[in-house]
Amino acid sequence: MPKGFLNSLTFRLSVLLAATVAVTFFILEREWFLLGAAAILWLHALQKVRKLFRRHAEKLTIMFDAIDNADYAFKFATEGRYSHDRTVNTSLNRITQIFLQARKVAIEKEKYYELIINSISTGILVIDDRGFVFQTNGEALRMLGLPVFTHVRQLGRIDSHLETLITNVRPGDRHQIALSSERETVSLAIHVSGTTLQGKHVRIIAINDIRSELDEKEIDSWIRLTRVLTHEIMNSITPVTSLSETLLAIHGDADREIRNGLDIICSTGKSLIAFVDSYRKFTHIPPPRPALFYVRKFVERMRQLAMHQNTYPNITISLHVAPDDLILHADENLIGQVILNLLKNAMQAISHEQADGHIELKAFCNKTESVVIEIGNNGPAIPPEEAAHIFVPFFTTREGGSGIGLSVARQIMRLSGGSITLKNTPPGKLTTFVLVFP
Predict the structure, then answer these.
(1) CB 366 within 8 A of CB 372
(2) At 382, phi and psi to the nearest 5?
(3) What is the band of 22 on the pLDDT scale with cuts at 50, 70, 90?
(4) What is the pLDDT of residues 113-133, one digit of tens each?
(5) Per-residue confidence at 185, pLDDT binned at 50, 70, 90?
(6) DSSP β-bridge partners for residue 292
(7) Backbone angles phi, psi at 325, to 5 degrees
(8) Which pLDDT score is estimated for 434?
(9) What is the pTM of this model?
(10) Which residues pair with 363 in a beta bridge?
(11) Distance separating alpha carbons of residues 250 and 247, to the nearest angstrom
C-alpha cells in the first residue's frame, strides 16, 4: 500500500472510525482484553488525526501571519508532497493569491483616487479629532504653503486664526478666512463634512481659493458702475459743450464777459469729456488674442520702451529671465500694456529722490509650471492701508493720477486667465508686483 495513502487524512479517519466501532463492540461484549488493544489503536489513530489537523492549523497561522505582514511572496511547497498535503498547500497558496489580487486592486483604486484628488483645484484635508492629518492633496499644501502637513499645530506657524479655525470646525460648518503670506493674500472658503475612517471619526475639509471669484465680481460691479457713470456724464456734458460752441460762433460780438463765460464752459466741458473718455479704457478692453512668444525678447523690448520714456537718469532696470527660451502664451500687446504701466509706476515711485534707483524685472517658471513675471523697485514701500485698495478703480494717491492703470492691468490679467498681485514683502525689500500666467 502506498505510503502516501497511509498518511492521508482519509486513511487516518477511517482507522479512527474503525477503532471507535471496535471499542464500542468490545464494551458491549465485555471483551476487556480486546477492548484494551482496540482502545490503544483508537488513541493512536486519534493522535495521528490531531497531529494532521494541528499541522494544517499551523499552516493557516503561517499563511495569515504572512498576509498580515504583507508577505505575499510566501508559498507552501506543492512538489514531492503527499496528495492531501498538495491539495491543502495548493488551496492555501490560492487563498494567498486571492488576497494579493484584492490588495493590488485596492492599491490601484487608492492611486486612482489620489490622482483624482491631486488633479482638482480644491484643497482636501482629512483630519481626526486629535488634529492628526490622515490625508491631504497637493492643492491644499500649495494654498497653505507647506511642504508636508502632519498635524494641525503646523498651521500656527502660518496663521494662529487658521489653526484655531481648523481645530474647532465641525461637520456642516462653512467659513471664510483671509490668509496672508510673503507671496500674496488669498481668500479661502472652508467647507467641512465628517465620516468614519479606520474606526476613527475624521473631518474632511475642502478649501477653495475664492479670491479670483471675488475679484471677478468686484471688477464686474465696477465695470457696470463705470459704464453707467460715463454714459450719464457724456449725455449731460456733450450737449452743454456743443451748445456753448454754437453760442460762441453765433454771438461773436457779444459782451466780453459773456464770451469768457461761454469759453470757460466749452473748455471745461471738453476737458471733462476727455477725462471721462479715459475711463472707458477700463470697460472696453479688447478680447485677448493669445499667441506663443519668447519672454526674454519681450521683456527686453519692454525695458527699451520704458528707458526711452524714462526722465529719471538715476534709475536702472535689470533683467533676469530663466530659462533663456522661456515661452509665454498670451496676448503680447495687452500684456505689454501691463508691463509698461508697472514700469512707469515704479519709476514714478522712485522719482529723483533716490540716487540709486533700481527696477528689477524677473521672469521664470514656478513649481506649478506657470510663467511668472515680477517687477520690483527699491522706491518707498506702499503702506498697508493703501496696498489693500491699489487695484480698486479710481483709487490713487498720486497727484494728477486717474486711478485706472492698475485696474486696467488687473482686468487685462483677468481676461488673459492670469492674475496680478502685490507681493507682501518685509521692510527694506523691493516693492514687487507679481504677474502669474497658469
Answers:
(1) yes
(2) -80, 120
(3) low
(4) 888 888 888 888 999 989 999
(5) low
(6) 329
(7) -100, 25
(8) 92
(9) 0.51
(10) 321, 373
(11) 5
Closest C-alpha to 29, from 40, 18, 42, 38: 38
Extract the C-alpha cell encoding 321.
529671465
What is the predicted pLDDT for the residue at 342?
92
CB 197 within 8 A of CB 133: no
Q: Residue 387 corresponds to which amino acid? A: A
C-alpha cell of 309? 520714456
Cell 469768457 locates to 260
Residue type for position 53: F
Range 76-102 average pLDDT: 75
Residue 223 sits at φ, ψ, to 5 deg, of -65, -45
Q: Are 333 and 339 in contact (CB under 8 A)?
A: no
Cell of 194: 465628517
What cell numbers appear for 252 in the block?
A: 461773436
Nearest-angstrom CA–CA distance, 257 and 86:
122
Q: 288 phi and psi, to 5 degrees?
A: -65, 145
**Residue 3 pLDDT grade (very low, low, confident, very high; cuts 50, 70, 90):** very low
Q: Which residue in 398, 370, 391, 385 sits closest to 433, CA to CA? A: 391
Which amino acid makes up residue 151? H
pLDDT tens digits for 204-241?
A: 998 887 666 556 666 666 666 666 666 566 666 777 77
Question: Rounded to whole angstroms, how far apart are CA atoms 391 and 383?
Answer: 14
Q: For residue 1, name the pLDDT band (cuts at 50, 70, 90).
A: very low
- DSSP readout, 297-366? HHHHHHHHHHHHS---TTEEEEEEESSTT-EEEE-HHHHHHHHHHHHHHHHHHHTTT-TTEEEEEEEEE-
The model's pLDDT over 103-112, given as tens digits with 9 standing for 90+, comes to: 888 888 888 8
b/e map 72-110, b = 16+ CB within 10 Å: eeeebeeeeebebbbebbeebbeebeebeeeeeeeeeee
Distance CA 189, CA 144 (A): 13
Cell numbers found for residue 425: 514683502
The number of beta carbons lying within 10 Å of the beta carbon of residue 154 is 15
Q: Which amino acid is at 367?
A: K
pLDDT score for 433: 92
**Are 22 and 38 in contact, with CB atoms under 8 Å apart?**
yes
Please say whether the dihedral angle defined by the alpha carbons of residues 325, 326, 330 and 335, taken in this order, is positive or negative. negative
Using CA atoms, how far apart are residues 354 and 347, in angstroms rounded to an integer? 10
Q: Where are the alpha helices (DSSP H) in 69-210?
A: 83-119, 138-144, 160-168
Percent of the chain residues past pLDDT 90, beyond the cut: 14
